[in-house]
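All the exercises in this workshop are built on plain-text protein records. Instead of coordinates, the fold is spelled out as a row of discrete tokens. Once this layout is familiar, the rest of the handout is easier to follow. The record below serves as our worked example for the rest of this section.
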Amino acid sequence: MIDLVIFGATGDLAARKLFPALYELEAVRYLPEEVRILGVGRKPWSAEEFNQHLRDSLEEFQKPLDNEVVERLVKRAAYHPMDYTSEGFESLAKKSADSSIFYLSLPPDAFPVIGTGLGQAGLAEQSRGFRRLVVEKPFGEDLQSALSLQKTLTQFWDESQILRIDHFLGKEAVQNILVFRFANSWLEPLWNARHIAQVQITAAESIGIEGRGAFYDKVGAVRDMLQNHMMQLLTLSALEPPPRFEADLLSNEKVKVLRSVRPLNSEDIVRGQYQGYCEEAANPSSTTETFAAVRLYLDNWRWKGVPFYLRTGKALAKKNTTIALQFRDPPTQIFSDSSVEPGSGWVELELQPKEAMHLEVQVKTPGLQFASRPVILTTPTNNGDKLELSAYATLMLDALKGDRSLFIRFDEVEYAWRLIEPILHASQPTEVYSLGSDGPGGQHYLMQEHHRWRSL
């Protein structure tokens, strides 16, 4: 038997994301038969009460819903009420299987408590099976807290047992970045500073903080998105091809990217806050950023001199996550005596809301005049004809398999924090921007001459 032990099983993340992910796996019978779902929480629920909570969560957050699948999932479920004391962990040790995955669906301040409690109860030991610890983001709130948390966990857990989740990496479109780059022989020779003039990575949301003011006001866009999601998109866009698609080899290349980033200062970042945020956050003096844009340079062979522009924000014009690369201008202008306007062209990977590739090129304008016009060639990267699991379902399945390729190794976390740390506390004003706009005007001052942000 394998136990999937979910700490915080009575909470919001489990209801919204984890239970629907398990439902997906059960619906297509990807969830191994020997897996038991063991919910852990402080609420003194009976097994029947937990099962009803599981049903209610799926009823609310899983569409469409097949009741037969729900009941198959409920048959796998059990509940263990406990406090996070030594006695509580000892009672869990008597109930859990020799092979167990402990998923911490809890606030970050509980990570060291649970990790230590499990270790002291012998639940990190692997002599009769495997034991894995799944940790949600954020892993620390700055460099020092991340180092401290790692030191605490590794008293009992080996690095290979710790699976740090960034749900962005579970998305089909994000994984497609690597396939797009390295499975196309025509593209890879162009993916470097000789042919690329700039790279823009955007993760825009049209919604605001949606009632999460108390949480978000302590975090902001830099910690919530830039340090993790955006750094992952950066590394996948810029890394060298690993010799094989293996977890540690992939992480090695991602770390090399982070270590090659030129040190940042306050001139490399623009912060913004959407109009009305302070009222939502119930903090009239808040300077927490809901938008962050940063300019990066990678001092390595492939990308020397190419600016990477990253931006993320809430309450913007539309939901849009893209990676766009602009090609350099042609070396000579053979059309100088005509109306042809040579364009440097773009290749764009759209990750959200659609999954697609866009190639912007110049073609001749129809007619007698020798002129040109830009056209965009678009193709979806997901035709909907294949099974696609949600990000959490993909990561849950990989955790069960022990495949760490889509999880984050600690040195990735560490060097991302080292990169962001200088701008975390930079004394810099937060510029207010209008709801539904492209963000604060200050972001345009990050751009090199002749560079412009692509429209959302």
About this structure: Residues 220-238 form the longest helix (19 residues). The mean pLDDT is 91. DSSP finds 13 helices and 15 strands in the chain. The radius of gyration is 24 Å.
